[in-house]
Design brief:
Chain A: Keywords: 4Fe-4S, ATP-binding, Chlorophyll biosynthesis, Chloroplast, Iron, Iron-sulfur, Metal-binding, Nucleotide-binding, Oxidoreductase, Photosynthesis, Plastid. Chain A: Protochlorophyllide reductase is composed of three subunits; ChlL, ChlN and ChlB. Forms a heterotetramer of two ChlB and two ChlN subunits. Chain A: Its main location: plastid. Chain A: This is Light-independent protochlorophyllide reductase subunit N. Chain A: Belongs to the BchN/ChlN family. The complex is a heterodimer. Chain A is α/β, with parallel strands linked by helices. Chain A is built from 21 helices and 14 strands. Chain A folds into three domains: 134 residues, Rossmann fold; 98 residues, Rossmann fold, CATH 3.40.50; 154 residues, Nitrogenase molybdenum iron protein domain (Rossmann fold, 3-Layer(aba) Sandwich), CATH 3.40.50.1980. In chain A, helix 17 links the parallel strand 11 and strand 12. The longest helix of chain A is centred in the last third of the chain and has 18 residues. Chain A starts with 9 loop residues before the first strand and ends in a 14-residue tail after the last helix. By secondary structure, chain B is an alpha/beta fold. Chain B has four domains: 118 residues, Rossmann fold; 114 residues, Rossmann fold, CATH 3.40.50.1980; 152 residues, Nitrogenase molybdenum iron protein domain (Rossmann fold, 3-Layer(aba) Sandwich), CATH 3.40.50; 50 residues, Proto-chlorophyllide reductase 57 kD subunit B (Helicase, Ruva Protein, domain 3), CATH 1.10.8.550. Chain B contains 22 helices and 16 strands. In chain B, the strands form four sheets. A five-stranded parallel sheet of chain B has the order 12-11-10-13-14, with helices on both faces. The chains are: A alpha/beta, B alpha/beta. At the A-B interface, helix 2, strand 3, helix 3, helix 4 and helix 5 of A face strand 1, helix 2, strand 3 and helix 5 of B.
């Protein structure tokens, strides 16, 4: 054990032979998030089979996604890609009439070099529905990175506003602002009053709207979260007098936030590095590099960083964090001193490990598909600091892990908990290793102060289950149990 | 390009992986991009496997795209050879490798030199065959490989076993109730005095494949997988095979008769008639059930059957022949086997549907409005939507179709299970009767029953209220007639008055 733990953060890179979901799985949560969208996955039966099985019952609920299944004629270019896609998209328009069609490029479209980006604008003009192209394929990306490719593509579609050139008193600005209502930035108290007067808002809304927001530059958050969680994070920032001008993605495609020079952006998930790059380079936004709001420690650090960028002194954050920790005490007691091993498959690993270390756990290994040290810099710094504060050795971070080797290490280390994909969960359980399916962290609500308990609910579930089954003597259930 | 939401049979590589991972100590290496190893999740979750699924991927990434797999595949094979020491490594192509057109056979040949394991390349083309066809082909390929190998080393067992014996071919992982069927078939053969020679691929060892030839005959319980192997063994070694699926009382008897005939040709003359009679009348409850007054209530009820060729055909025959239920439509998604299917169900159903498009199946069910559906998980969901009960009889399946309890579909115990399934699927007879008398107890609003959304008709609240008073079994018909009347008369909103106007116009 001692040889695998070291004094500084170490980064390793293995073979990349690991199990994860294909990035096209992002359609499952994105089509639910963006209510007026339709996702068309241009790929083969293999992609379809994955979606169908991975998403289980969702398939039967008339989802707003479908496969454009490529047949032999498409591969050998006997059929015209453009005509074929047009036929399908016209059908989708007829049946569903979405505000946007998102084409998800797959491995096959990459290999046969189907020019989706080239075809989209032509077809868009022809059928009158925006077509966004995201290449979420298994050749380049893992699991949650699929969302990253979609959001990066969508960042180009956000309405533009160069804020460096307009001042607060500009009347044309206010008119535009009222059109896009709640996402438009610069809503100072003054502006609110004018807008309210213009539209004869009743007093109730007026009193609600006159929250003391600081007059800060507009802030747009990026990352797809359930609407209840976005509301919670909005409120959390509102307490500090910070107004969230919009989210990428928004609940509806037609409500995408305004971006441009002078807009500050901040990510809520660790796998959004392409989106961050696009926002900075192509949309001239300023990126706030913060740890991610996962766990009360992460949430506090996230808010503090945003405040510091706007020159605001955060109020009551420490008390709020402590309150949350107190409410977590029963769960923290359960996991304190226990060890955990992340096999790695969804890029949330560093943030989760950091939170679990703060809870008193010992992390042996953080497997992760891909590590963007720049985008995750603040998170990595917080991880290092947390380890120092808690006086535990720094875990090794293994990029592109090799599942076979990891299983050997798990056998050696015998962690109290392995956070792993479903391919390994049952076999590990049968060998007496408690596991938690990593995918659940992607679908559960884990952001902000409010949801910290949900993370621990997930993490402690196998431990609580084991407590209730204790004394039955059935921990190792394979015939040739290897220990 | 095809707009697809759902598919019945998976891609080819799934079939290959199912066969490979069913054998003991066989490892499959997929030539595939990251994320294509979803098979491991399915096996681990659906079958609740305790062991690591012996499938890994030789990852195709950007790098491979630019330079070709080169040493990577060979390295992955030799590495797995050292790590796990499998008897056989099956290199499995995917849709991706189908387009890349790398010379995988060359990699296999090179790796075979360095490895102690045998190495083969699964001979399946993603764009030509589906999961089931690929499984059939891979099984034959593996068997052929080891028979040829044994031939070369003169270790092939050509002498038949002393006592009559059989191979059971086609039991494999993620198959619909395959484990239970396997146990039931072993029991059946045991009762007949037939020894089990080999069961493949599930739990079989490739090193034992040279013993296949010792069997007197092969039993192929499912049409989809195993026929190619049986044909090969018949052609090469003259081993006869039985393909009648022993599902249902009549076909189980038929299967036993065929076995008797084969044994007779080998001078082992035994009459199983008494056994069949005993089992039919007293061990299986299905024959008695079909005479009991419970089953009387099912007479003439409409049912729809859909599934793979084996299960859909057998089920159609059981419903029509053994229970007196009217099968309005029987269908299969095994398009490649449609001739056989038509021939099997001819005379047992009103119409036949061959399609792998689930919306066609849904529309057919909505049109027919059967009292019960027997289909796959997809039909179960269609049934839920249309408020029609459904018994699941075939893959594709969910985790609930991997029951822990003993639930065979084949053999005499299978007939009991099927009788229960059928009986529980239809609304219980007396309950149904009472519903008709008292006009139903459901207060759910009927809005639209069909799957397609072409209707622009609106039901007014009083119309819906009136419709709900109509007994369930004719409600759909009344609704349809009313809507037809409304459409013909350009009426958009259906009120109570319109309903009665419609009734008067058709005189129904």
């Amino acid at each position: 054990m001692s040889e695998t733990l070291s004094e500084t953060l170490t980064f390793e890179c293995e073979t990349g032979n690991y199990h994860t979901f294909c990035p096209i799985s992002c359609v499952s949560w994105l089509y639910q998030k963006i209510e007026d969208s339709f996702f068309l996955v241009v790929g083969t039966k293999t992609c379809g089979y994955f979606l169908q099985n991975a998403l289980g019952v969702m398939i039967f609920a008339e989802p707003r996604y479908a496969m454009a299944e490529l047949e032999e004629g498409d591969i050998s270019a006997q059929l015209n890609d453009y005509k074929e896609l047009k036929r399908l998209c016209v059908q989708i328009k007829q049946d569903r009439n979405p505000s946007v069609i998102v084409w998800i490029g797959t491995c096959t479209t990459e290999i046969i070099k189907m020019d989706l980006e080239g075809m989209a604008p032509r077809l868009e003009a022809e059928i009158g529905i925006p077509i966004v192209v995201a290449r979420a394929n298994g050749l380049d990306y893992a699991f949650t990175q699929g969302e990253d490719t979609v959001l990066a593509a969508m960042a180009h579609r956000c309405p533009n506003q160069d804020l460096s050139k307009v001042s607060n008193g500009d009347l044309t600005l206010q008119e535009q602002g009222s059109k896009t209502s709640n996402q438009f930035p610069l809503t100072t108290v003054l502006n609110n009053k004018i807008v309210n007067k213009l539209f004869n808002f009743n007093t109730k809304i007026e009193t609600n709207d006159v929250t003391p927001y600081y007059n800060h530059a507009p802030l747009v958050l990026f990352g797809s979260l359930p609407s209840t969680v976005t509301t919670q994070l909005n409120l959390e920032l509102k307490r500090q007098g910070i107004k969230v001008s919009g989210w990428l993605p928004s609940q509806r495609y037609i409500d995408l936030p305004v971006l441009g020079d002078g807009v500050y952006v901040c990510g809520v998930n660790p796998f959004l590095s392409r989106t961050a790059t696009t926002l900075m380079r192509r949309r001239k936004c300023k990126l706030i590099g913060a740890p991610f709001p996962i766990g009360p420690d992460g949430t506090r650090a996230w808010i503090e960083k945003i405040c510091s960028v706007f020159g605001i002194t955060p109020q009551g954050l420490e008390t709020r964090e402590n309150q949350i920790w107190e409410s977590l005490q029963d769960y923290v007691d359960l996991i304190k001193g226990k060890s955990v091993f992340f096999m790695g498959d969804n890029l949330l690993e560093v943030s989760l490990a950091r939170f679990l270390i703060r809870c008193g756990m010992i992390v042996y290994e953080i497997g992760i598909p891909y590590m963007d040290k720049r985008f995750q810099a603040a998170e990595l710094a917080l991880l290092e600091q947390t380890c120092n504060d808690m006086n535990v050795p720094l875990p090794r971070i293994v990029e592109k892990p090799d599942n076979y080797n990891q299983i050997q290490r798990i056998r050696e280390l015998q962690p109290d908990l392995a956070i792993t994909g479903m391919a390994h969960a049952n076999p590990l359980e049968a060998r007496g290793i408690s596991t938690k399916w990593s995918v659940e962290f992607t679908f559960a609500q884990i952001h902000g102060f409010t949801n910290a308990r949900d993370i621990l609910e997930l993490v402690t579930r196998p431990l609580r289950r084991n407590q209730s089954l204790e004394g039955l003597g059935w921990t190792k259930l394979v015939k040739s149990a290897v220990s | 390009m095809k707009l697809a939401y759902w598919m019945y049979a998976g891609p080819a590589h799934i079939g290959t992986l199912r066969v490979a991972s069913s054998f003991k100590n066989v490892h499959a290496i997929m030539h595939a991009p990251l994320g294509d190893d979803y098979f491991n999740v399915m096996r681990s979750m659906l079958e609740r496997e305790r062991d690591f699924t012996p499938v890994t991927a030789s990852i195709v990434d950007r790098h491979v795209l630019a330079r070709g797999s080169q040493e990577k595949v060979v390295e992955n094979i030799t590495r797995k050879d050292k790590e796990e020491r499998p008897d056989l490594i099956v290199l499995t192509p995917t849709c991706t490798s189908s387009i890349l057109q790398e010379d995988l056979q060359n990699f296999v040949d090179r790796a075979a030199i360095e490895s102690e394991s045998d190495v083969i390349l699964a001979d399946v083309n993603h764009y030509r065959v589906n999961e089931l066809q690929a499984a059939d082909r891979t099984l034959e390929q593996v068997v052929r490989f080891y028979i040829e190998k044994a031939k070369k080393s003169n270790s092939l067992q050509l002498e038949k076993t002393k006592k009559p014996s059989a191979n059971i071919i086609g039991i494999f992982t993620l198959g619909f109730h395959n484990q239970h069927d396997s146990r039931e078939l072993k029991r059946l053969l045991n009762d007949l005095g037939v020894e089990i020679n080999e069961v493949i691929p599930e739990g079989g060892s490739v090193t034992n494949l040279c013993n296949l030839t010792k069997a007197w005959f092969n039993l192929i319980p499912y049409r989809e997988v195993g026929l190619m192997t049986a044909n090969y063994l018949e052609k090469e070694f003259n081993i006869p095979y039985v393909t009648t699926t022993p599902m249902g009382v009549v076909d189980t008897a038929e299967c036993i008769h065929e076995i008797a005939d084969i044994l007779k040709q080998n001078n082992y003359d035994k009459n199983f008639d008494e056994y069949i009679e005993q089992q039919t009348k007293f061990v299986s409850q299905a024959a008695w059930f079909s005479r009991s007054i419970d089953c009387q209530n099912l007479t003439g009820k409409k049912a729809v059957v859909f599934g793979d060729a084996t299960h859909a055909a057998s089920m159609t025959k059981i419903l029509a022949r053994e229970m007196g239920i009217r099968v309005s439509c029987a269908g299969t998604y095994c398009k490649h086997d449609s001739d056989w299917f038509r021939e099997q169900v001819q005379g047992f159903c009103d119409e036949v549907l061959i399609t792998d498009d689930h919306t066609q199946v849904g529309d057919m069910i909505a049109r027919i409005e059967p009292s019960a559906i027997f289909g796959t998980q997809m039909e179960r969901h269609i049934g839920k939507r249309l408020d029609i009960p459904c018994g699941v009889i075939s893959a594709p399946v969910h985790i609930q179709n991997f029951p822990l309890g003993y639930r065979p579909f084949l053999g005499y115990e299978g007939t009991n299970q099927i009788a229960d399934l059928v009986y529980n699927s239809f609304t219980l007879g007396m309950e149904d009767h009472l519903l008709e008398i008292f006009g139903g107890h459901d207060t759910k609003e009927v809005i639209t029953k069909s799957l397609s959304t072409d209707s622009t008709l609106n039901w007014a609240p009083d119309g819906i209220a009136e419709l709900n008073k109509i007994p369930g079994f004719v409600r759909g018909k009344i609704k349809r007639n009313t809507e037809k009347f409304a459409r013909e008369n350009n009426i958009n909103e259906i009120t109570m008055e319109i309903m009665y106007a419609a009734k008067e116009s058709v005189g129904a």
